[in-house]
């Protein structure tokens, strides 16, 4: 089997880089910055979204029926996460599975441990990513009191949201999510909309966007394209059989074919392009500067010459890791597979895993494994081949490593680039 380049990094040993330790010079030649998505309750969830990329980890990682990061591991994680950062802002992100299943007292302990290890002059932030089902007055009071930012998963208005986001018995969840929105509003808890753009809702860009901004009142929206390799439950990214990967534009490079390279619920790449174009036009005309859309904000910043704010559109990545309930640390939230396990915080220092030769190689390969097709693309500096998890297809020349979303990304960037230049120029003039 011919494997992709990134997989080579999984065979590397865990040698810490010099920058794993705090800069001893006292002259701040480098600052250690990274992010870990914490999954203290494992993959356990109270609903059963049909497109979920994480539920199958219960089986893949042999998780117990009720996974729970124990108190000792939690304290060790919090302490070492704080100690492995330089700078005066540290963000903790709690996700799953569904983190609220652990109960409010679990997170009271989180906050108490954070206070115990919080250095002077350092601000700690908490994000909680949730489906909202369990949120009630008690939860919202807690979240407000401790300044949590909530990321609420919602895919659009009722019919669109309920297409895939259903309970374990297949019932819709829209009403429960809207009750959570009411509760968050009542307690004045800030929240962002986390919207997965899948095969269905991608066909309704304006309905989705207008619902999120007008009915939900969201002023920060994170759109994530739903892309899952058809073998995602068993095969780690980049371990695909290269000879089976289809060429861009072929039938198998799109969802819907029984032999497609992706699951049936993955967004069609061309729909992704149309979705981005439709939402971008609406955003530019009505919401520029008022609503923050993750992909557009970073495209503006990149056009102005700043680095990308998102890993997926960065030249390199590898600074967004994941920790599971048992203390296992993985290269990325989307690479929680045995092949990408760096180690366990019980056996290795967190900073030695994050700033290791192996993790550095993982991050560098985002650029170094790009096919020539991307390297000669007009939009390389905005796209950078998107996420390596999605590099499921071949270029027209048959080279591996092309992103499944390429046709949509190209269409979007071709449409948006001149407008992005106009926005960047306007912002620069306003600054003068
Ligand atoms: S692998 Fe993808 S999601 Fe993970 S850090 Fe890299 S770009 Fe981001
Ligand atoms: S638009 Fe396509 S060819 Fe261009 S950098 Fe992105 S994935 Fe590569």
Automatic annotation (TrEMBL):
Coiled coil: none annotated. Its cofactor is [4Fe-4S] cluster. GO terms for molecular function: 4 iron, 4 sulfur cluster binding; metal ion binding; oxidoreductase activity. Keywords: 4Fe-4S, Iron, Iron-sulfur, Metal-binding, S-adenosyl-L-methionine. Residues 28-255 form the Radical SAM core domain. It comes from the Bacteria. CDD domains: Radical_SAM (cd01335), SPASM_anSME (cd21120). The keyword Membrane does not apply. Transmembrane segments: none annotated. Belongs to the radical SAM superfamily. Anaerobic sulfatase-maturating enzyme family. PANTHER family: ANAEROBIC SULFATASE-MATURATING ENZYME HOMOLOG ASLB-RELATED. This is Sulfatase maturase. It comes from Photobacterium ganghwense. The lineage of its organism: Bacteria, Pseudomonadati, Pseudomonadota, Gammaproteobacteria, Vibrionales.
